[in-house]
What does this fold into?
Amino acid sequence: MSSRYLIRLASAALALVALTLAAPAADMPDPAADAKAFRNFFVTKFPKVKLEDFVNGPYSMNEDMRRQWEEKEQFPPYEFSLDMGKEMFAKPFRNGKTYADCFPNQGIGIRQDYPYFDTKEGKVITLELALNRCREANGEPAFSYVKDEMAALTAYMAFTSRGRPFDIKIPDDPRALEAYQNGKRYFYTRRGQLNFSCATCHVQNPGERMRAEILAPALGILNAMPIYRSEWGGMGTISRRFTTCNSQIRGVPLEPQAEEYRDLEYYLSYVSNGLPIAGPGSRP
Amino acid sequence: MTITHSDFPATRRLILIGAGAIALTGLGIMSVGMAPALAAANDTYPEDAFKQKGAADAIKSLYGRTAEPSDKVKLDAPEIAENGAVVPISVSTTLADVTSIAFLASENPNALAAVYRIPPGTLPNVANRLKMAKTCDVIVIVEAGGKLYSATKEVKVTVGGCGG
Amino acid sequence: MASTIRVRATSTGEVTEVQVLIQHPMDSGFVKDAKGETIPPHFIRELTFEHDGRNVFVADWGAAVSKDPYVKFSFKGGNKGDDLKISWIDNKGETDTTTAKIQ
It folds into this structure.
């Protein structure tokens, strides 16, 4: 054999060894690295946008829209829902207990810790889920997840956390890591008749127009929830947005608080760690 | 201080104007038959103007005359409305003796959207949020010193504000 | 029932700026519901602001004013602690009124 051939063979073998050594590291989920890469992607793509401004969705992407938003924020449309939420939160259940009894710190200023992974149950608990569980545990009927009362309650709780950075934790538990990965997988999987993934719009095309809308960046996309959408003429929760988005891409929406949705919320919240809670918010 | 007509609904208003005029005449504050030259042209709810389809007809019904464009009327409206259901539109003007400000959207089912009565002492600046059915001209009319001035801006609407 | 009218009235000493947000459907009468039936018009016609016994601003509204309507204006005068009375009447004859203190 020629020496050239031997050298090529040796190089190939070395490359193969290097790849083999690198491969196991690539298989292990690394949420911290994900979050860093996720954030870097957006700040690099939009160098003029301040990090904390990403939570304002399309308003961080377009000046004309931003001005309209700022004008409306002088006296925002979610005021009524927020007031209703505050009243509801304070009102005791028929058994005399209150929402404050179900949550750490009386339910005030805790929104940034949701969702969390419950190691006892082995599942992701979102704020919306926790609220309905609180109601049911106290003999009250659950609310619809998508609007009205649930939106009002989460609006109030988000409001008490305004400005606090998302602080989602992934405990050292393979099931938590699995839930995180599940959420990530959902985010990047194409679905529906339009064959879009969440990433198609919110990672590949933020700031661009999709029909009449300006697309929001995925970084910080849940920070302003729940939102008053002009499109809905009212409030909507994270559940509402996930289900309607699925419908809009002509897919079949899952039930609110389905496992994939909760895991998706877990992933999206985690990669936005450090960005401030801005809810309740307004959107077109 | 200029006396403006009371703003109660029509029936009560008729009775009260009569009573008020007598009382005020007696007090020497108001003379019978005084033409309120500085009172707003639209001092009652402009039922007819709101029923008009086009902007020109609505303005005619409201004020009985036409407006001239003026750069002293500053109209602030977005280039592209983020949603036609809630378009923030505002106006400010340096014109003096403003008595009325009206907002119209030329392609709405009925062009007239809102009219504001500006009594003396109130600044001629108004901000409001209006529905726009589709891309069209937003027109603002300012009645100042008995004359009409206007400003116009096209606002693009992608998602119509009338439930479309 | 809580008032439908939310007010922010602030005085600089010389000028009072007033913003209101009112909870009202402002149905235009042009929209159909999920069943395909037209939702009848239901909107505020007149909105009045009274300070010190006189109207400082009157709004004549049609159906094209947005849901949960908002308006902002300013008037000369008005001191901190003064009352500002706000009332509206809609096309169904429903009304609401509130009195706010200028801040």
